[in-house]
Amino acid sequence: MEFESNIDRYAELKAQILTLLDNAEYDFMTLETLARECKVDEPTMQRALDELEPVVRKAISYSVAHDRWYRLTSKGLTASEQRLRMNALITFRTLRNDNW
């Protein structure tokens, strides 16, 4: 019976994560903030976020500081992520066309 209770709580945690990310005031929420809001430890939160992939994704960034930022995939890319992706494509195309 305790096992089923843990499964139910874990399913509730995932639903709570999706709700928090959907109603987030900012573009991203950190792992630490999500753990605090859901009242769980960070390893448990990380495991739940990993299992929610690809519905939940990490920030697209060159900065290691953004490695623990999460967002709903359905919300699309932020403006800064779109610029970063465009710059990467332009750089790749430029390198590809050079005579190396």
In short:
The chain has 100 residues and is mostly helical. Helix content is 58%, strand content 9%. It starts with a helix and ends with a helix.
Which characteristics define this entry?
mainly alpha, 3-stranded antiparallel sheet, about 100 residues, Arc Repressor Mutant, subunit A
Distance N to C terminus: 65 Å
Specify the CATH class: Mainly Alpha
Mean pLDDT: 89
Strand tally is: 3
Instruction: Provide the number of structural domains.
Output: 1
CATH topology: Arc Repressor Mutant, subunit A
SSE pattern: HEHHEEH
* Overall SS class: mainly alpha
How much of the residues is beta strand, in percent?
Answer: 5-15%
The name of the CATH superfamily reads: Winged helix-like DNA-binding domain superfamily/Winged helix DNA-binding domain
Poorly predicted runs of 5 or more residues: none
Percent of residues in helices comes to 55-70%
> How would you describe the oligomerization state of the chains in this entry?
single chain
Question: What is the CATH-assigned architecture?
Answer: Orthogonal Bundle
Task: Using the alpha-carbon principal axes, give the shape.
Answer: elongated
Strand order of the largest sheet: 1-3-2
Number of helices: 4
